[in-house]
């Protein structure tokens, strides 16, 4: 459910805390060049034959309850909750102990809590199952890792459910992407401008190399704060975007008649949309979408590409960008609008093809809300498309609605408290489900909804856990489902999600934690990157 509005003193304390923690975080990163990319652990190409899915699997929706650290499992056909309250952080005590023992880790932990987490720890961001449904890979932002969890053990409540863990090079994990054959997993390393590739199977490659589940393989470069990665239908390409420093100030692009775009860009950092060749992770094309929007006659819009939807044929990509209540249409094959190479992204020149062809405006129901109060800079955060490529499914995050939008006409059908009779508070993600459905997480309502793009109907509205964020299709063995025997479990309440250590309860406690982190070693502003001196 939607949380009570914070008090002014709470907001001030949180703002100061975030600023100080950003200072410490920047100092911790000072030793790493901004464009550094870790050396790939495995450079040889991998086999491309798909891994067959075993029989006797249940098609399910996994829901990651971010603030609770749990998952809910929903039957993708009957749209009923099969299991709730599945613990995805059984190692919480050890993780918190490791964090408190390291000043840099503690600084980022608190920074994530006060920034992207909106005052909460981010325990679960993304998740994908292995093809046999036995294991679930989970990215955990506050713990800066990705873990592989034995689903049978986790649903039985066992503390030893984690079978493998991989730590990020940086201090936060985010979105993931799974290859169509289920063999390769991409994970965004939020503070390292990099996306890492991991194996989801155990196999022997063509050259005889043995690869195990969870093994890190290769890495490709991203912009500031890597975000979403989507494979092409044939698995040969990856569509990836970075969103910049969404946790910093500098949200406004203009101050009255004065354009402050250059300052905004300096603060937010590089925000790129890129197409990567999966075979060798080579960057094939890379665009600055703010520049492309300006070329199309829409100056002053953000370069940060939020969730994307790839139309059938993969020529047209639909984006959400920061602060915009609507959708951007981008034609990857169109000739560049001004016919010149007018910018570069890192060492990659502007492609000669690719152009913004249209904007689809959707209602802004919070026109007086300052941009600084948008959740991580996102007006809308969640976009998918049906298999026919006719209907876009939108999460209207700040507007408290979901929408089914006709791709051709832009006409929308809205789902909110007025039209459905129940709340659609802070929708945070949409994805394509089986049977051509659209699944939406309603993070402020602690629920998920299922919509039918063909009929325009709401098929289901299901309570889950605290702050559902990512929803993904997956698999569970039928034998395991049968063993539950109707024992659904209980979705955790907000009180259940309070961490056993490092709770953020009062301003005085927060100040004490900050003193512990900063101590006498607070870096000078002169030592900080210019983008973070505005704190």
Q: Give the N-terminus to C-terminus distance in angstroms.
A: 31 Å
| Strand fraction | 35-45%
- Number of distinct helices: 9
Biggest sheet, in brief? 4 strands, antiparallel
Estimate percent helicity: 10-25%
Question: Taking strands numbered 1, 2, ... along the chain, how are they ordered across the largest sheet?
Answer: 3-2-1-34
Number of strands: 34
| Radius of gyration of CA atoms, rounded to a whole number | 22 Å
Detail the poorly predicted runs: 1-52, 494-535
How much is the average pLDDT? Answer: 84
Provide the structure class. alpha+beta
Tell me, briefly, the overall form. Answer: globular
Describe the structure.
It contains nine helices and 34 strands. It is of the alpha+beta class. It has a four-stranded antiparallel β-sheet with strand order 3-2-1-34. A hairpin with a 4-residue loop joins strand 31 (437-442) and strand 32 (447-452).
